[in-house]
Amino acid sequence: MFGDIARFLLNTVFTLFGAALLLRAWLQVVKMPPYNPVSSAVLQVTNWLVLPLRKILPNGRRVDWASLVATLITAVVYIVLMLLIGQVDPTQMMPMLLVVALLTVIKWALNLVIWLTILMALLSWLNPRSPAMPILYQLTAPFLDPLRRIIPRLGGIDLSPILLFVIVQVLLMVVTRAAVSMTLFGDMTL
């Protein structure tokens, strides 16, 4: 029972923090201004890890390398802690640890896409004039715009978020299965 609770708490905390680090990198890609509330909150939560790394890894023009490396480090720590809770020696996993960490980062990124898409879809129905809508639209547009060209609107209803949700869910299943098959986690959730 303790192991299940510890895994749940670790999964929740590390997934949220990993998503914040990825969101920080994504905010730079979509050129989100740093003074909006979302950017400000993400920067405050992640500065403690990203700023020291930025001294070693300078920012690229569009790629925030420090945030991406911080995400990978976070994933490695997460996997090591999950292995320790599962009473597995992390040194046995050394060759595969980086691959599983990379798959975990991909899983966090896919989860972030789902969360942002669901939030945008809900707000577009409940409160389309919400101050968060322009931010959510800017973050999700690179994923939804190509789908909008494929799926026409039906009576003013945009079905592209549903298609994106299905695509990302399938990708999540593939990534999760690959990560679990490479580890000794058994029934532990990554």
From TrEMBL:
It holds the Pfam family CCB3_YggT. This is YggT family protein. Belongs to the YggT family. The keyword Translocase does not apply. The chain crosses the membrane at residues 7-27, 65-85, 97-126, 162-185. Keywords: Membrane, Transmembrane, Transmembrane helix. It comes from Paraburkholderia rhizosphaerae. InterPro entries: CCB3/YggT. It comes from the Bacteria. GO terms for cellular component: membrane.
